[in-house]
Specification:
Elements: H1 14-39, H2 42-71, H3 80-84, H4 92-120, H5 128-156, H6 159-167, H7 175-187, H8 190-200, H9 206-223, E1 227-235, E2 238-246, H10 256-270, E3 277-284
Parallel strand pairs: 2-3
Antiparallel strand pairs: 1-2
Helix pairs in contact: 1-2, 1-5, 2-4, 4-6, 4-7, 4-8, 5-6
């Protein structure tokens, strides 16, 4: 019996939430540009352009999520895609997050410059009627979507959705308040950009390194090995762990099945197995192989 089809905008899945966000962002952006031109409001126009940028970046996020999902699907291991990208697609996640966060900062800085220019030239007259109508509509829609996306992400735990939730929290007030808005927009994605750069540069997470070393030291003591060396990195949602154990040269020979059972023991000690964990465990009598 086949499983029921999954809804395009399923709020329980990462891809469903991102699709919903793309559709909503495009709709709000189009309305914002129209209202902004009619009301002569730089902030509303800025939000429309900002929304279009967000549509593109959320679409890229969705594409990366689909690629990661495909690469970890056992039934697709022999596909041409997996043969060309044998190390998976986790590395694309921090790249997209970093670019998306940087574009958010860049758009805010550009808008801030325009806001200063408007203030120095005596401000800008706006049509209050359309601006107020749009402000009310946008606050209701964006606040609702921000709450919805954040609530959906509590069970999903996606960095893409977390960044998207921040993008929905841009208020609508003209040039003087736009400076404050731009400061918020600049600060909001800084944490995401910092984490993305950390992932791209393969900076070792301290807590994960400590956990891996603790498990490895226990294995060394239990089985009488000489030492271990670990290499740990976090790339997007993927944890990459390489463990080398130096075995005494006079250690009694073991069957391959015993070494595999030892690898299973180490994997279980490290934590729950996941499709987002790349674990390599090697045993050698030569320390040079661990460097």
């Amino acid at each position: 019996m086949s499983a029921p089809p999954t809804s395009t905008f399923d709020s329980t899945t990462e891809q469903g939430v991102l699709r919903l966000s793309i559709a909503a962002s495009f709709g709000v952006a189009a309305i914002a540009v129209a209202f902004g031109l009619f009301a002569n409001s730089s902030l509303i126009i800025f939000d429309g352009i900002y929304g279009l940028i967000d549509v593109v970046m959320t679409w890229l996020s969705l594409l990366v999520v689909r690629l990661i999902s495909m690469s970890t699907n056992v039934d697709a291991l022999q596909s041409r895609l997996n043969q060309r990208f044998t190390m998976g697609f986790w590395h694309l996640e921090p790249i997209v997050l970093g670019v998306s966060g940087t574009l958010m900062i860049g758009a805010a800085l550009y808008a801030a410059v325009n806001a200063v220019d408007a203030l120095m030239s005596g401000g800008r007259e706006i049509a209050l009627g359309p601006a107020i109508v749009f402000a009310v509509i946008s606050i209701i829609i964006e606040s609702g979507l921000a709450l919805f996306v954040r609530r959906a992400n509590r069970s999903i735990g996606s960095e893409f959705i977390a960044l998207d939730a921040k993008a929905w929290l841009v208020p609508y007030i003209d040039p003087a308040i736009l400076l404050v808005v731009c400061l918020f927009v600049v600060v909001a994605p800084l944490g995401t950009v910092r984490q993305a750069l950390s992932d791209i540069l393969l900076i070792t997470p301290v807590d994960l390194q400590a956990h891996v070393d603790e498990v490895a030291r226990g294995i060394v003591a239990k089985h009488g090995f000489i030492e271990h060396r670990s290499y740990v990195a976090k790339v997007g949602r993927g944890d990459q762990i390489e463990l080398f154990f130096v075995v005494p040269a006079n250690d009694p020979p073991r069957q391959l099945l015993e070494w595999d059972q030892l690898r299973d023991e180490i994997g279980e000690a490290l934590g729950e197995e996941s499709t987002d964990r790349w674990l390599t465990i090697m045993f050698t009598t030569d320390r040079e192989w661990t460097i």
